[in-house]
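Ticket closed. Logging final result for HEPN domain-containing protein.
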Amino acid sequence: MLSLKTSADIYLEEADELLKKGDLIQASEKLYKAAEEAIRLLSFILKLNLEIVNTKSLTDAVFLISEKLNDSKIPIYWASAISLITVNLSKEVVKDLRNDVEELVKIADREYIKVLGRG
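Final structure:
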């Protein structure tokens, strides 16, 4: 069976490769992009009709998504993504925050699969 990957999935995979190489800065940027793409996908799926052009509009979308999906952890996952690009972090911390980004990507994937009628 064909496995569909979202751009968020691809960014997450790229981040994992960069983490293996020890490139924390690039890995952190890819993790942030994975989270950003997950939020964009969820915004589209949930028909939020938002123009997402910057971090503020992404953050606004995060809270609307959290409310619509009744999932209070989504803002926490987003905060982890923001931390990845605003602070120099150790490899251990980046790996921990990566788990939050992965959870956000999983939520987006789950909702995407529902839309495709495969869930």
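Helices lie at 7-21, 24-45, 55-69, 74-86, 91-116. No further action required.
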